[in-house]
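Rotation project, supervised by the postdoc (A.L.). Task for the rotation student: set up a whole-complex structure prediction and record inputs and outputs verbatim in this book. Inputs entered:
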Amino acid sequence: MLITWWYFYLAARSFADQTLKMASILQKLITPLFSGPPEPPRNKVTVVGVGQVGMACAVSILLKELADELALVDVVEDKLKGEMMDLQHGSLFLKTPKIVASKDYSVTANSRIVVVTAGVRQQEGESRLNLVQRNVNIFKHIVPQIVRYSPDCTIIVVSNPVDVLTYVTWKLSGLPKHRVIGSGTNLDSARFRFLMADKLGIHASSFNGWILGEHGDTSVPVWSGTNVAGVNLQTLNPEIGTDCDKENWQETHKMVVNSAYEVIRLKGYTNWAIGLSVADLIESLMKNLNRIHPVSTMVKGMYGISEEVYLSLPCVLNGGGVASVINMTLTDDEVAQLQASANTLWDIQKDLQDI
Amino acid sequence: MSTEKLLSRVMEAEPVGSRSKVTVVGVGMVGMASAVSVLLKDLCDELALVDVMEDKLRGEAMDLQHGALFLKTPRIVADKDYSVTANSKVVVVTAGARQQEGESRLNLVQRNVNIFKFIIPNIVKYSPHCILLVVSNPVDILTYVAWKLSGFPRHRVIGSGTNLDSARFRHLMGEKFQLHPSSCHGWIIGEHGDSSVAVWSGVNVAGVSLQKLNPKMGAEDDGERWKDVHKKVVDGAYEVIRLKGYTSWAIGMSVADLVESLLKNLHRVHPVSTLVQGLHGVKDEVFLSVPCILGSGGLTDVVHMTLKPEEEEQLRKSAETLWGVQKELIL
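Outputs recorded:
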């Protein structure tokens, strides 16, 4: 009995010695000037879902140095920890000093921006709208937790079908509509600008063109706005985008719509382009840039749409979220297409349970 | 045609090809992480991807091209045919089998040698003046293999080596002291793998040698357990593989870091794998990581570390292990 106590004493003394030694090395090396609680993050971003899209968003955010803290959340704990460790091992090459991850949403507290990529993704050939009910159920778990820990954040919804799920997120979160954004046709427009610019031998950023409406099969290319250096393409070619266009420019829009299906067919999923496009949105929000992006926002009351649906329109993004929406001059046909999208989306939304 | 109405040509001839082209061989997780890191750091004006799996290759290239609006790399190309890699300044080789859970890197050797017998001559054919950066494991042996198969001078064949191990070490050191890893200095050299060597005498913060503050650093009776930190580095890859199936992001970023020094002629010092025959008592033609100066000519100089006898002994032992494997290879 005495011997047990003796060993216990020895262990405690050795532990105390080690702690003191460590403390004294640190003291010898570093003299603190200011002792207080650790500084809270000022530009924290959370990514919900560490699948291919979530990690592509995370890496783009890190390499563009947009955040001072990055939090990852998912339900698959091993994968989550592995991804966090892999990113942390690269911290020498990054300027984001804190990378954390947990199944528990408390790790996301005080985020300025939360990117939601969680949910099921399209299988080969499957339409985005097919994913709805499964993803609504997942969102019922996710969204209230996000808001609980970051009541002042702006949420960017990426999971598909993005327009419906942005509506769902808005309803479940209780946040004002300017702080719930869907990644929408930001990616479609980026693809469109790349493909059109490629045909002309110029960089995508020098080609201006907008794809609006549903992020999916019924997106609307606004041909009347396509221009290079202010030179309007429709003025050069009045048939542009129509069936009788000899240059068949509408093929480019078809390619945009099919892009995702094509990449999924070839490599199983898409991630790099969507990751880059999300980081681009975050840059405008974080840096209060007032840049215009085609993102999914609440469009009730515009273009004769009477339901609460989310569709992509050109939005001015700044530190507060969606500051304003640009009023496009659309042709009657383009307005009709938007209304048709709105109706399709409302048809799905009205049947959703308990949101 | 709208284009005729839109644009009037000024320059008569077509411009010369790209000036800082990077090729990535292998579009698996490591290859793509390297590609994305290189793209996001705006390091090259052309990126080429090569692989044998044609659908996957095309899909990855398309996915990157769709992000062109957000990037400053105007040409992204991909093909199974190596002609697409012509005139590269740096070729990053990530192709080959990877470790399964619990598998050591040395186990991958013969499979990857066979793959290199196809890849390396093709690279050399189309980019005879490039710098080869080998990442596939076991990296030290495969860098030797790439050197032999390419016929390149030794300053143009580099293995990513312990660049990542050192980064992991500096990250862990940063966590211990609540400092950014870039302010924590420590070098891990030797084999990229289980027998890497942590040079304790060089570990410092702001030039203050930690070993002077703690003479037992790295020893068995070290109260601060620095040996465990090194062990965590060695186990790091196995741990991440166990959790997510593979590692990608950290190695991708470390590759981009090396490519940056090479393309921008920075003359920075990195721990990378090079021919160490004649150094630290190593007699055989083996590649091990030591601090090297990287610039646009390649690996131009080696830094002579002052190592303790035990540390030199460890390096020689690694060299012997590697030579033991290398001399059995059919090249």
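Student's summary: The radius of gyration of chain B is 21 Å.
Supervisor addendum: Residues 40 and 211 of chain B are 38 Å apart (CA to CA).
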